[in-house]
Specification:
Blueprint lengths: L4 H15 L3 E5 L2 H12 L3 E7 L6 E6 L13 E3 L8 E2 L13 E6 L2 E4 H7 L3 E7 L1
Antiparallel strand pairs: 1-3, 2-3, 4-8, 5-8, 6-7, 6-8
Length: 132
């Protein structure tokens, strides 16, 4: 049993990118699916697929690399709010990642979204992770 499934998700993606893998498989959950959709919409991953063959289901993520230098699209993916120390931010104090070049993924009352969208909707919430 994993005590922090979101940290496990981020670690699997980070390790697969560092190892140069094309695809990574992760056990599915609703919040992991939402994070995957955001990473795809923001252009950090190439593609994804949700498979419901098992009881829990699996998320298959095709990782994105630069065609010339073969460097991964995600330079850093870090967990912000941990089970031992949750990080919450109001709509006015949402974090900016690399002065707007990266994204912070926020879990709000209106669903999981990026920091930019949360500012537009004027909602705060739990800061899940930072990606750039």
């Amino acid at each position: 049993m994993v005590t922090d499934p979101i940290a496990d998700y981020l670690t699997r993606v980070r390790n697969a990118m560092m190892a140069g893998h094309k695809v990574v498989e992760i056990p599915a959950s609703r919040i992991k699916k939402e994070i995957t959709k955001i990473l795809f919409d923001q252009g950090y991953i190439l593609n994804y697929k949700f498979e419901d063959g098992t009881v829990q289901g699996v998320i298959k993520i095709a990782l994105k690399y630069d065609k010339i230098t073969n460097l991964p699209a995600i330079k850093s993916i870090q967990r912000a709010s941990k089970p031992g120390l949750r990080k919450y931010a109001g709509s006015k104090e949402l974090p900016r990642v690399l002065n707007g070049l990266g994204i912070a993924i926020i879990s709000t009352s209106k669903g999981v979204m990026t920091d930019k969208k949360a500012r537009q909707e004027n909602v705060g919430g739990e800061v899940i992770c930072y990606v750039y």
